Amino acid sequence: MPDAGSIQKKMNQIQSSDSISNLFGQLVSGKKGYKAVIEVAKPLPKCECGQLLEGNEKFCPECGRALSSPKSK
Length: 73
Fold this sequence. Notes:
This protein is mostly helical. It has 2 helices and no strands. The chain folds into 2 domains: 1-41, no CATH class; 43-73, no CATH class.
């Protein structure tokens, strides 16, 4: 089974091809010149113990480890 990175690469190749991209855009939207946008999912944060996190926790709900705060922009 292909991983998400290889699928994203293939989709980028398909989108960079103008004829295929235009045809796909017309198929999806019914309009000429439409270019579909593919969103890339952000990976979910994990604690060192392996527990999946939502990203706003200060402590891991599974092991109680203090988590580093998200970097503010």
